[in-house]
Amino acid sequence: MASNLNTLQQKGSDVFYDVCCSVCEEDGIHNEGLFHCKICFKTYCDECVKMHKKLLKDHAVSAKFDGESWYVANKVDDTIELCEEHTTEKLAMFCEDHEQLLCHLCLLQKHRQCSKVFTLAEQAKSNSQRIPLVQVTEGIEKSQKRLKDMVDRGKDNIKSLKASYEHICEEILDERRQINENLDRLQQNTIRELESIHERLNNSIEDDTKRCLECISKLKIYGAKLKDNILPERTFITLRKCIDQTAAAESLLKIMIKNDGPYIKFQPNRELIQCLADCTDLGKIIIGDPQHNVDPNKIVSIEDKSEYNVRTATDEFSCGITGICSTSNGDLVIADFDNNCVKLLNQAYKVIDQVQLPTPPWSMCNISSVEMAVTVSEQNDDALSGIHLLRVDGGKIIRKQVLKMNHVCYGIAHVDAEAFVTSGTALYEYTMGGRLVKKLYEDRTGLHR
Questions:
Q1: If the chain, 449 residues long, is cut into consecutive pieces of 10 residues, what is the mean pLDDT of each piece?
Q2: How far is CA 298 from CA 290, 295, 301, in A?
Q3: Residue 112 shares a structural domain with residue 158
């Protein structure tokens, strides 16, 4: 606070005045107010009054010491008289060019070039500008009711949003449970295979070990008998069996040496690991279109009707509008069937851009606030059938992508990042990249479309 005070004293006088210059005070300068304008409701120093007199020659200015009654400007108590942009300034004028209430700062900063600026006193006396109070009052009541309804609706939307949030949390947990169940299944299958291989190898080793022990036992017996004094015939038999058993032992040893030291190793499923590594989430969170509760029995009536010419110099035929989409800034995009094009209209419904299409556009829908999808087809010619993705940017229609289809394309709708396309006899679901998800329905029994 002290530093601010010192700054003020350095910029202006070090004397404090009962009335300060309104303009200088806004710049943090402390100069005495010597002149007063009753229309602007401002006081001015001897320098600022020169600019005021130059800009507003019809404003009468009274001096502090010229004998006239000196009016000291106080802060406006009633906030309705204060400017909404310059919140400490009192409203003093009305600009008919922009239909705005002005303070003197508004006039100086933004409305100096306006030709129809009047004081509030002049405007209030003008019979031609008198506003019907009854109509305004009714409008206020209607606006208040609509705003209150919107507040109530906002509360309901918060509850609905919370419910959808909790539901999605459950869906995420359920998705995780399904993944866990599948991982458990894969784990069980892998462990089952491990147990089977382990048992087979273990049994093989045990069988070979058992055969080794049997060979050792037989060779030991045959060797002992050869040392005994037995008949020549028995000696020959024993010798022959000993040779055969030795050969069998050698054969067994070769097999066991070949299969010596078997072990088990685990080779992870790299495709599964990479697939999980490539995933960034369990699913996409999408903001759906608002679900408006509309009374199906409500009578729809036309409140107003206007006609605009959207035909351009390059159009060969009258316009046949088969689709209308709006952008976030209020512009319209229309599909002109008869002239094979899409046109961009500004808020005055003037054509500001258009792009030609290879075939007539049958239908169009928004896929975002500035993007549209248009179906094009030539009957009995699938080569030209497809979806044209367009984008509106800077008052121009930009071609983004063309998705080729192997069937005729008529109607289209965009729901939850998927495109639903009709062919006259079937309904297809596509990703926005053009990949067919599935054919949802088909009926060839009646007239198509």
A1: 36 58 83 84 88 86 68 53 87 86 90 88 65 73 88 88 90 92 94 93 88 86 76 82 85 82 87 89 81 72 85 93 91 95 93 94 93 88 85 92 92 92 93 91 74
A2: 19, 5, 10
A3: no
Q: How far apart are CA 212 and CA 208, in angstroms?
A: 6
Which stretch of DSSP H or E encloses residue 414? Answer: strand 412-415
Residue 424 lies in a domain: yes
Q: How far is CA 53 from the centre of its chain?
A: 54
Q: What whole-number distance in Å separates Cα of residue 326 and Cα of residue 224?
A: 106
DSSP 56-81: -TTS-EEETTSSSPPPPPPPPS-GGG
Q: What is the pLDDT of residue 7?
A: 38
pTM over 0.70? The answer is: no
- pLDDT value of residue 71: 56
In the 8-state DSSP scheme, what is residue 129? G
DSSP for 315-383?
Answer: -SS---EEEEEE-TTS-EEEEETTTTEEEEE-TT--EEEEEE-SS-EEEEEESSSSEEEEEEEETTEEE
The total of other beta-carbon atoms located within 10 Å of residue 214's CB is 14
Are 11 and 115 contained in the same domain?
Answer: yes
Q: Are 98 and 111 in contact (CB under 8 A)?
A: yes
Query: Where residue 98 sits, what CATH number does that domain have?
Result: 3.30.160.60
| Residue where one domain finishes, among candidates 242, 258, 274 | 258
Determine the pLDDT at residue 422.
94
- The span from the CA of 407 to the CA of 426, in Å, is 10
Contact 331, 344 (CB under 8 A): yes
| Co-location of 386 and 333 in the same domain | yes
Per DSSP bridges, beta strands 418-422 and 412-415 are antiparallel
Instruction: State the burial class of residue 34 (Cβ atoms within 10 Å of its Cβ: 0-12, 13-18, 19+).
Output: buried
Confidence (pLDDT) at 448? 54
Is residue 382 located within the same domain as residue 406?
yes
Tell the residue number behind the tokens 């015939």, with chain if given: 233
Domain encompassing residue 104: 2-128
Contact (CB, 8 A) for 390 and 368: no
For 151, other C-beta atoms within 10 Å of its C-beta total 10
Q: Single out the residue of 122, 269, 95, 254 nearest to residue 183, CA to CA.
A: 269
Is 99 inside any structural domain?
Answer: yes
User: Is-contact 94 109, C-beta < 8 A?
Assistant: no
The tokens describing 118, both together, are 């009047």
Specify the pLDDT at position 78.
Answer: 54
